[in-house]
């Protein structure tokens, strides 16, 4: 599942990451451990791509 949409800058990536973690964190009522792991993995891939360019 693609959680990050229309990310053009590193700042947008970080902002979306924070917002997604607030929404899907396992400690929240509607949180999900699996979703959090997927978000972290996707963020890691996008962050590495951005930092290399």
UniProtKB/TrEMBL annotation:
Domain J: 1-53
InterPro entries found in the cross-reference section: DnaJ_domain (IPR001623), J_dom_sf (IPR036869)
GO BP term, pick one: DNA replication
Origin superkingdom: Bacteria
Keyword tags: DNA replication
Keyword Chloroplast: no
CDD domains: DnaJ
Pfam families: DnaJ
Listed name of the protein: J domain-containing protein
Species per Swiss-Prot/TrEMBL record: Parablautia muri
